[in-house]
Each structure stands twice: as structure tokens, then as C-alpha cells.
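Structure first, sequence second, as always.
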């Protein structure tokens, strides 16, 4: 469709939306780079906070890079404050004071909750167990003003139980404030302020309500919405939940998410301020945001990646199998990966996949750290072509 192609630009290349989750699980970045190579075109991977893989290639001089001067970059950033995260309440005194001062000047505020819903965990104080999803055993969250529970893993939902299914007691504790609960707390704390939620779970908020709000309560998913009103103060209530997420990209994702929040707050010359509540202010992701210095973050992120053989030092391949032949398929994939010299993690149970009629497909998966994941994937074609009826096998190169 473009025979004379000379330039390809991928804006905000670090966004995971460039990676397709469903089969074929292609990566638009890889496609763009290969298409440019085949046609002799230039491919520009643009981002204010590049993925570690792209940043490392530029750091090592393997690809060209152009960046604004450090002075220009810092001039566009807000004042960034790292403050202690309080125990037992949402807002630290310093953030509470910043909000009051901002409201007094007639400016707007955005507050970032770590999760959707009312609370992340429903915990029984009698038997000291958290409520679990009956389909996949993951912990469920409280939603819709405590009237419902939902599983963030497989999507199961139901009315909130009146009693604990394990012991019969009715002494539930809701732990970890979600966006619903935070909005309620903010309304009580600042009763004269108009509060609106920017949240995937909220439909009732009209454009008029958003336009007249003083404080916006949102989540990381909500910040991706097309509606992002101008604000002067952005408060991140729990950065620890980002940097301590059990994923090897946790620091990278935290740096990118917080950098986007800094952009939302605007430059310090216009009063922009980002306040981050945390208990580990020396973490390199938080320090990188505070300094507005991507190089600082990258230089400290790479050694950990090298030690554990994660990208950019190895390429990843994930295989997911389900059905009667699940275990045999994963063993066959495991053998191919080991012959190729890959380091394999698993197999382990995969996140359940909801099916029609409320059933769940039980799957297993493994993750291989390969010198060349594409070559290993090519070796798996024979297995993919002979999957028995009723079973499934998926192979994903460079899973995000």
C-alpha cells in the first residue's frame, strides 16, 4: 500500500498497545523496523521515556538517537516531591496541605489511586483469610460501593457475600483503597470541592461534571482516557504498589507511568507539581522521575536485567497450552527450548481464560529466555502444526 515508503514513525513507542495480546501476537515495533529495513526507509521510535530495550540500543550506540537538552527537558517538568506514604490514611499531611493550597487558588488537582473499585482486598478478621475467586483462586476486590466483589484475574463477579464462606463470620475488612473509596474519602475531607472520577468503571460522570470538577480521582488505566483535564497538582498516593509489582518490568513501568503524570502536571513555571507518596524514595525509578533524567534510570536498571537475563540481554518467548494435551505440549516446547540453550521458567499454571457459560479454560505456561526467540519459535512450528483436537498451544515472542 506504500511502495515508496521512506519514513515510519511510531510515537510513544514504549506503550504496550503496540503489542497485540491475541494471536497473532505481533509487535508493531518489530514490524515497523523490519518493514523499514526491507524498503530502505528510516524508522523513528519516538518516546519521552523509551522502553529499556530501545533505550539500551541507543545507549550502546547501536542505533542513532536524538534527545532534547537536559536543560530543555527539565524546563518542561513540574516540581517533583517524594514524601513518606502515611500508614492508615490516604493523604499525608504534606499532600493534604498542597491540595488545600491549590484549591484556595482555584486550580485543579488529580489524585491517582492504585486500583479500581472500592478496595483491593476483602479480608475476614475472624479467620484471617481473604475472599478468593471460586474459579481461579485469586483474591477478589470490592466494587460498587461494597455491594459487589469481582476478580481482577479472570473477570468473575458476584454480589458481596453477607458472611465469610470459610468461617461464617461477618467481620470483613476492606484493605487497599481503590478509586471509589478514595473519591468518597476526598469528598469527606474537602466537602466544598467538586470531585469527579475518571475511571473505566464510571459511566455516569458527564462532560459537564468533569468540566466543573475541582479534584479528579483516577487510576493508571483512567489516565489513558481521551479526557485529561488540565491540572496544576498531581498526587500519586502509593508509588510502592508500582515499583513492588511482581513483574520484571515493574521499575520500567513505574518510571514511564510517573513520567506521564509529570507531563500531566505541566511545567513548574506554570505552577505544575507532582507529589509522590512512597516509602522507598531512593528507588532508581522514583529518582529518575524526580531528576527528570532517563539516563539515570536506565543506567541503574540495566545491571539487574543483565544479572537475571531479561531483555535487552535475552529475548523472551512465552508458550501457553490448554486442553487434554496441555502437559505433553508444554513438555515438548520445554525440550525444544532447552536444546536451543534457553533458560526456562516453568511450566506453571496460567491465568484462567473465561469461556461461554461461565466455564474457565485451565492453562499452563512457560517462559524461555533465549538468545534468539525468533529462531526458537521457528523450531516450534512442527509442534504447533500437530496440536491434537480439543487442545491449544500459543507461542508469543516478546510478551509484554
Amino acid at each position: 500500500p506504500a511502495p515508496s515508503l521512506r519514513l515510519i514513525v511510531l510515537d510513544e513507542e514504549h506503550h504496550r498497545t503496540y503489542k497485540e495480546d491475541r494471536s497473532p501476537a505481533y509487535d508493531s515495533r518489530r514490524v515497523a523496523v523490519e518493514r523499514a529495513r526491507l524498503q530502505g526507509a528510516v524508522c523513528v521510535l519516538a518516546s519521552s521515556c523509551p522502553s529499556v530495550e530501545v533505550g539500551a540500543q541507543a545507549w550502546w550506540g547501536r542505533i542513532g538517537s536524538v534527545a532534547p537538552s537536559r536543560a530543555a527537558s527539565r524546563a518542561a517538568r513540574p516540581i517533583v516531591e517524594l514524601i513518606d506514604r502515611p500508614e492508615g490514611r490516604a493523604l499525608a499531611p504534606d499532600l493534604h496541605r498542597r491540595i488545600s493550597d491549590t484549591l484556595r487558588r482555584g486550580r485543579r488537582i488529580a489524585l491517582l489511586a492504585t486500583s479500581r473499585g472500592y478496595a483491593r482486598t476483602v479480608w475476614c478478621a475472624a479467620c484471617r483469610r481473604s475472599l478468593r475467586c471460586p474459579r481461579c483462586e485469586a483474591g477478589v476486590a470490592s466494587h460498587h460501593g461494597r455491594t459487589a466483589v469481582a476478580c481482577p484475574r479472570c473477570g468473575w463477579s458476584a454480589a458481596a457475600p453477607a458472611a465469610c464462606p470459610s468461617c461464617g463470620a461477618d467481620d470483613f475488612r476492606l484493605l487497599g483503597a481503590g478509586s471509589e473509596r478514595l473519591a468518597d474519602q476526598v469528598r469527606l475531607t474537602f466537602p466544598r470541592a467538586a470531585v469527579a472520577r475518571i475511571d473505566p468503571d464510571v459511566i455516569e460522570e458527564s462532560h459537564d461534571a468533569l468540566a466543573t470538577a475541582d479534584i479528579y480521582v483516577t487510576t493508571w488505566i483512567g489516565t489513558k482516557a481521551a479526557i485529561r483535564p488540565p491540572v496544576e497538582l498531581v498526587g500519586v498516593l502509593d508509588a510502592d504498589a508500582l515499583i513492588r509489582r511482581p513483574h520484571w518490568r515493574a521499575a520500567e513501568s513505574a518510571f514511564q507511568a510517573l513520567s506521564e503524570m509529570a507531563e500531566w502536571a505541566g511545567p513548574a513555571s506554570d505552577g505544575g507539581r507532582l507529589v509522590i507518596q512512597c516509602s522507598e524514595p531512593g528507588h532508581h525509578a522514583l529518582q529518575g522521575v524526580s531528576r527528570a533524567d532517563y539516563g539515570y534510570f536506565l543506567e541503574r536498571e540495566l545491571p539487574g536485567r543483565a544479572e537475571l537475563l531479561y531483555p535487552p540481554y535475552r529475548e523472551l518467548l512465552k508458550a501457553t497450552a490448554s486442553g487434554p494435551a496441555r502437559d505433553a505440549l508444554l513438555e515438548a516446547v520445554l525440550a525444544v527450548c532447552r536444546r536451543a540453550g534457553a533458560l526456562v521458567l516453568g511450566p506453571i499454571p496460567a491465568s484462567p481464560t473465561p469461556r461461554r457459560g461461565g466455564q474457565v479454560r485451565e492453562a499452563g505456561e512457560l517462559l524461555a529466555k533465549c538468545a534468539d526467540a525468533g529462531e526458537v519459535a521457528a523450531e516450534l512450528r512442527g509442534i504447533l502444526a500437530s496440536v491434537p483436537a480439543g487442545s491449544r498451544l500459543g507461542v508469543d515472542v516478546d510478551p509484554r
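Margin note: Residues 120-175 form one domain.
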